[in-house]
Design goal:
heterodimer; A: seven-stranded mixed sheet; globular; B: mainly beta; seven-stranded mixed sheet; 0% helix
Chain lengths: 109, 118
């Protein structure tokens, strides 16, 4: 099983600042198989980034993904008030075929 | 637009079964597999299984094999997920999510809270 570890657990920033979220895999993951989701309280996760770099439909360009192998990053260039949420990375691989990170909570400082 | 609408919250006793539904709209139902993912309190998201809505074939996480059954009703455009022999550890929000290229999930249903308590 590929284990995804996200850091930090909680990130406290102010609107307008830049956020950098990390996702580390226990073994190499194809960039094509790495995604990021945003989840707000009481809501379902929403797809942000797929294939490590590509933004999903309707996602603002302040969200960007990067990385390869075992290290991936989600960057939010200038935080808006609506960006404060929990973010999860997810990979597709071997059994089980889909695993998620434990999440990074982005909170207002 | 593409939408997945799930059934309402359930409270069950240990040992019972629960069946959650997910009604799809806004796309050709049989063209996309549907997955089930759960989120227990304080735990990470956990993939449970999926169904090919076209031919009904299923695949389950080893963890849930034998205890989870996913079915579909193509005429009603509904996918069902049943969990049997419920335990307190099955208390979670259960989500359905549409498959995208067998790799990621978009969109998701609104979630169904299942509480298992004596």
């Amino acid at each position: 099983e590929i284990v995804l570890t996200q850091s930090p657990g909680t990130l406290s920033l102010s609107p307008g600042e830049r956020a950098t979220l990390s996702c580390r895999a226990s073994q190499s993951v194809s960039s094509s198989y790495l995604a990021w989701y945003q989840q707000k309280p009481g809501q379902a996760p929403r797809l942000l980034i797929f294939g490590a770099y590509s933004r999903a439909t309707g996602i603002p360009d302040r969200f960007s993904g990067s990385g390869s192998g075992t290290d991936f990053t989600l960057t939010i260039s200038r935080l808006e008030p609506e960006d404060f949420a929990v973010y999860y990375c997810q990979q597709y691989g071997s059994s089980p075929p889909y695993t998620f990170g434990q999440g990074t909570k982005l909170e207002i400082k | 637009q593409v939408q997945l609408v799930q059934s309402g919250a359930e409270v069950k006793k240990p040992g019972a079964s629960v069946k959650v539904s997910c009604k799809a709209s806004g796309y050709t139902f049989t063209n996309y597999p549907l997955h089930w993912v759960r989120q227990a309190p304080g735990q990470r998201l956990e993939w449970m299984g999926w169904i090919n809505a076209g031919n009904g074939k299923t695949k389950y996480s080893q963890k849930f094999q034998g205890r989870v059954t996913i079915t579909r009703d193509t005429s009603a455009r509904i996918v069902y997920m049943e969990v049997s022999r419920l335990r307190s550890e099955d208390t979670a929000v259960y989500y359905c999510a549409r498959d995208q290229r067998s790799v990621w999930f978009d969109p998701w249903g609104q979630g169904t809270l299942v509480t298992v308590s004596s």
